[in-house]
Amino acid sequence: AVMRCLGLRPLEVALVYLGQVLVLALVASLAGGLLGLLAPKLVSAFVGDVLPPGLLPPWQPQALIDGLLLGPLVALLFSLPALAALWRVSPARVFRSGVEPLPRPTLMLVLCWAVVAIGLFLAAWRRGGDALTAAIFVALLALAIALLALSALLLRLMLRLLPRERFELHLRHGLAALLRPAAGVQGALIALGLGTLVVSTILLVEDRLSQGIIQALPADAPTSFFIDVQPDQWPTLEAELRARGARAIDSVPVVMARLSSVDGRSVRDLAAEREEDEHRRRGWVLTREQRLTWLEGFDDSNRIVSGEPFGADPGPEVSLEKRFARDLGARLGSILVFDVQGIPIEMKVTSLREVEWASFRINFFLVAEPGVLNDAPHYRIATARLEGPAEASFERELATILPNVSMIKIRAILQRVAAILEGLVAGIAALGSFTVLAGLGILAGCVSSGSLRRARETALLKVLGLRPRGVLLLLLVEFGVLGLVSGVLGALGGLGLAWAFGMEFELEGSTRWELALWIVLAVTLLTALAGSLAAGRALGARPRLVLAGD
User: Fold this and answer.
1) Distance CA 513, CA 519 (A)
2) Residue 337: closest CA among 324, 348, 353
3) How many whole angstroms separate alpha carbon 441 and alpha carbon 345?
4) Under DSSP, is residue 358 helix (H, G, I), strand (E, B) or coil?
5) How do strand 224-229 and strand 406-409 relate by DSSP bridges?
6) pLDDT tens digit string along 408-458?
């Protein structure tokens, strides 16, 4: 309004502030880019020696240039709605109350948000390389923002309806402070809610994965797999394992084959039809090298869900894992022809199974009827459970006893995978925490922008007899409630996404509510602390400000 009184036109005023935005964004992007160049060292610190040396080059100028372009672009996009509000500012506003909301032209606001959405889509497309994924990202982000904005409106409505006069003084005044004009509730709640959503989702998914990898491992699961065991070597290996007190010893034969046709149709033709299929795996299962075995019967990790056990059909039979059959395009009664060392073998699908892969027992997609493949060239794989030192010592001795047999220690691999996962998630969560920090920055900005008004309110409260400690308690209540609501909304979203992730990938275990509660508590405390620190200057306001009418 002062600039308008000095003769500047609305467009010129908007350009002045736009220049400020771009300069600040460029400086911030440069600082962030320089910090980002330290990312390889940070990643190496988190994941240790998992990544090979030289995989992450320390100097990546293209990444720095991308950051310097992306930062000002995002700042420009999100400043457009605020700049649109300057378009109709009257010079007479100089004489009006500073808390009067700025008029925002509806059409200009809609156009600005449309530009924001398009800009975000283009940025996501540029970084992700897939238009559909970018569109889904923008749509979900818009949905999350809309839900958080609606939650902010509902919070203010609920606070208006609450009988606050019945509450204790500090709680009553702290809640009422969220209803003041220009309190910044909506912006802070959206930023803090999104940040909490990102961090809580990452941490909850990591926790669910850890449960699925380590805690879901059955107590009697094998600890070691042995591959490339020749048929005449199996008695020797079994005897050596039993001599060392191994338990849960098991072994099955493996026959390598190629699938030639499904129900009379060539695999080559079927694979060509699925070449453009969005589910690439469906084409891959046709052309992969197939591994078959034969079994007299199925243990409790295999459950027949359709069809009959072997022996119901006079010809050669084969049993398929249910999802593998779906990807293969086979069903009960389908005729599969396999090429085994140049010899065609035809088998009929007589049963479909559900396999409990988490049992870590030896399981196959394809199980043939005994007697069909017994004379085919094959090798064996075996499993056993070896405890503690026995496993390490047997691994060394195996190289002398059976040098061609490879021993894979499953539990050690799973523990290594879990450690890698924890390191990667820690790095991603650290990056996601920047979103929470951005929300706290927005909150601090809202508080600082109203520091003069808060100083007068604080001085008035002191005139009425409230001590500085009491004023601080009012601020803690105000910002604590804001942090609590943001944390609850973000944590609920994280719980939902972690649950959906676990259902999609059929992970064992459950999402831990107590972890979400700790996240809510942390966000509440951080928000209360950040808001109170931002209002620190107001806490030092003297009562003479009110008495002097300053």
Assistant:
1) 10
2) 348
3) 69
4) helix
5) antiparallel
6) 887 777 677 667 766 666 666 666 667 667 667 766 776 666 666 777 777
